[in-house]
Amino acid sequence: MTRPSPTTDALRTPGTPRRRDQRQWAPYLFISPFFLLFTVFMVVPVGAGIYLSLTDWAGLGSPEFVGLDNYSRLLRDASFGAALANTAFYTVFAMVVVLPLSLLIALALDAKGLRLRDFFRLTYFMPVVLSPIVIALIFGLIFDGEYGLLNATLEALFGVGGISWLTDPWWARVVVVVLVLWRWTGYLTIFFLAGLQNIPRELHEAAELDGAGAVRRFFAVTLPQLKPVTAFIAVTMLVNTAQIFEEPFLLTQGGPGEATLSVSMFVYRAGFQRQELGYAAAAGVVMFVIVFVLGRLGTRAFGVGRNR
Question: What is d(CA 113, CA 73) in angstroms, rounded to the nearest whole number?
Fold first, then answer.
């Protein structure tokens, strides 16, 4: 009888270095699809956008490298400044008004003994699933300066009418933020409601036994338990409002003038209307940096990702 060769025995032994190397590489093999997709759909587009922002390109031919000229031009562009100011206005409104209102509605929907709970949830969530075209048509009929439903109601009840909702710079901004409020409040309410339902009832019962009232329980129990959900919602709303496009585009086309122009609309105009793709990419990179920094500050403020 012939004995197996030492090489064969080594390959079959579970504790050999070759088997240990295979076990060490196995986890990386399983998570490699994520890194591959992340590289293809995130790293490569971001890198291409940064490179494109350093060029002058109209979409045809070879891009001409211009360095930081696009960024210096943005600093002198009054339209970009107006777009940043309008976007900041929408974002602050969403953080100051939409988030607290969504939390209050979620608290109301989570109350004990509430009837027609599912009906109210569906009602608040419905604006999210409606087509933006339908929403624009509805709001156009309501806020039309001559034949709008709102002006007709105000004139019939209070004798006040003729407000140029979509052609006056100030009122146009108001209409856009009202649309943001109406469209996104129900969406954020669903997240807050899910967070409220995950809070253990024992915490509220213990606080109630200690003599804490409803307001005290809200600040001592509900808000601390909702911190991760609130951080997620705040960052999500920050990203969404920073990229706001459909609401001002469908209602006012960014007007009157540039009163409702957002950064996304500015990028659209520069890239697809004026064929200045490098300039549009530079504006997008600036907005990306601003949103990234604000997002990181927000997550730090809520303590997300810290080791306890």
Answer: 59
Token pair recorded at residue 7? 């090489």
Query: Which H or E run contains 65?
Result: strand 64-65
Check whether 182 has a pLDDT greater than 60.
Answer: yes
Tokens of 9: 């025995």
- What is the domain partition of the chain in residue ranges? 6-53, 77-302
C-alpha 80/C-alpha 30 separation (Å) is: 44
Nearest to 143 by CA among 114, 111, 178: 178
Please report where in the chains the tokens 């520069």 appear, as a residue.
Answer: 270
Main-chain phi, psi angles of 64, to 5 degrees? -100, 120
C-beta of residue 281 within 8 angstroms of C-beta of residue 49: yes
pTM summary value? 0.81
Which fold would CATH assign to domain 77-302? Answer: MetI-like fold (1.10.3720)
Distance, C-alpha 129 to centroid of its chain = 16
pLDDT at 124: 82
**Residue pointed to by tokens 């108001």:** 174
3-state secondary structure of 56: strand
Residue 71: closest CA among 286, 272, 287: 286
Tokens standing for residue 164: 């140029």
Q: Please write the tens of the pLDDT for every residue from 195-234.
A: 888 888 888 888 888 888 888 888 888 888 888 888 888 8
Residues whose CB falls within 8 Å of the CB of residue 225, separated by 6 or more in sequence, listed in order: 195, 198, 199, 203
